[in-house]
Amino acid sequence: MTRRLASVFLLVAMISTTVLTACSSNKSGTTSPSPSAASETAKESANQETAGNEDHSSEKVTISFIENGWVNTPTDDNDPWRKWMNETYNVDFKLSAYPESDLESKLMVQFASNDPPDLIYAWDLNTVKKLYKQGVLLEDWTPYLDKIPALSGTFTDQSKAYVNEGGKMIGLPTLPNPNTYSFKIRQDWLDNLKLQMPTTPEELLDVLRKFTRDDPDQNKKNDTWGISSAGSGTNLGELSRLELMFGKSGIFASNSQAESSIVNGTHKKMLDFVKTIVDEKLIDPDWYTQGWEQRKPKLFSGKVGVTFYPGVLVNEVEGGNGATGATIGWFENMPMPKAGPDGGNLPPGSINSGIITISKKAAEDPVKLERILKIIENSTYPNDGYWALRWGVGVNGQKVMDVEGGGKFVSLKGELYRPDNKGAYDWGTWVATGRDGVVESTNEQPGESDKKQMKLDRETMQMPSNPNDMAVLSLDPQIVSDLDTLQSEFDIKYILGGTKDYDGFVKKWLASGGQTLLDEATKQFKQAGLIQ
């Protein structure tokens, strides 16, 4: 998940000057500027004496930082972010950003030549583990967590277990990007048919029937479907999320052992539900064969009642319909319908965006260590240094606007430096998190569709979700791949009526490596402290 999110951010960085212009409604709302004193506030914090230690803030420190970046190209001598860092923290800050495929080799060369970086940010934990086992990194972050409360306060049992090596914390998990995917439903169709928001599987099935059969768009044509998907001919696509109505999905920690939704029957409940949808023709007939992009014309033209999507759906639909504002009211969030005590949650989000650590050499320099800790703390959302590095507040003349009703907006109009020096986006790579709720656009003000996107995403972030137990596991990739194939083949065969033998499938799944995975997961969950 971390890698996919990072790729999304790269895409945003590279095309941010155009991506939302065509999608955003021209209708604007009232906004008020956020305080832009990030530079002075962060500098003031950086100059404060560390409790119990001598104040070294007047001593200039050289800090080398190597990271996974979005753009991975150097900036010129006029880089305002470098100037801001140097002046704010009294440092000579040297940033080098590399793609994920190159970072490990670059780090190995630097450490082998006895010229290690001071600060490291990596998307792949295995890169950190390899260096840690060589004894060249800080041995344990635990004693320093009280110096970085903004970051350490976000740690969960899962994220701490993720960086646990022999009882020691080998790195700092950065803030994860919140999940903004949830089921979206045509609110106007509910209103037209005088239906309530469904809260159970049975109620959802009734809504899907009426969305398909009762002319919800009132055009007197039989041209709508209750739901759709984009399986690309390989899996159930977003329909698999319906399993969460009935309980947790996948492999997860439960009491004293690892449990599987395939074995405990939760998966079968989802398959039976989807089979009913397909049998009753409540779904777009191309749901299994079409891909994500192929499905969009039906979605954007108003033929589908329920979809699993982030809030950007509003802007995409608006852009596909001339950005007139006519479609902004189409979709609202549908909380996950609930059946049983463990059902009704969204899927787990990521447990981090990457890992921060420092070299052993940097850790042994008390002045440098103190400065690095201050930089990490001040750069963590929602502290002022975050807004400076991620969005340029106090650095490049950028302003983050508070939007009425919640959310924040950044206008890229008049952006002075990054359009010609995209490598400057990499100052924000290691701190970035979608928790900031920011939508960016080349418009001067947020449009109504921007506001609606913020609203939907904000609501989704507040919805309950399952813990990401699987993120702490390191399971045999070949077994995982083979079982995924076995499951995908059985799922579509069961739904289309080619078999009813679910018990036989479970036995085959266990014999084909499923039991091996469960045994190994139980062992790893115990080592991580998630089960006793």
Write a structural description.
This protein is α/β, with parallel strands linked by helices and 532 residues long. It folds into two domains: 37-176 and 351-441 and 452-462, 3-Layer(aba) Sandwich (D-Maltodextrin-Binding Protein, domain 2), CATH 3.40.190.10; 182-345 and 473-528, D-Maltodextrin-Binding Protein, domain 2, CATH 3.40.190.10. Helix content is 38%, strand content 13%. The chain contains 19 helices and 17 strands. Helix 13 packs antiparallel against helix 17. The longest helix is centred in the C-terminal third of the chain and has 27 residues, at 502-528.
List how many beta strands DSSP finds.
17
**Helix segment count?**
19
Poorly predicted regions: 1-39, 45-52
CATH superfamily of the largest domain: Periplasmic binding protein-like II
Radius of gyration, whole Å: 25 Å
Whole-number total of structural domains? 2
What integer is the average pLDDT? 90
- The share of residues in extended strands comes to 5-15%
Strand order of the largest sheet: 3-2-4-14-7
Biggest sheet details: 5 strands, mixed
What's the oligomerization state? single chain
> What percent of the residues sit in helical stretches (DSSP H or I)?
25-40%
**What form results from the Cα inertia axes?**
globular
Distance between the termini: 27 Å
* Structural class category: alpha/beta
Provide the CATH architecture of the largest domain. 3-Layer(aba) Sandwich
CATH topology of the largest domain: D-Maltodextrin-Binding Protein, domain 2
CATH class of the largest domain: Alpha Beta
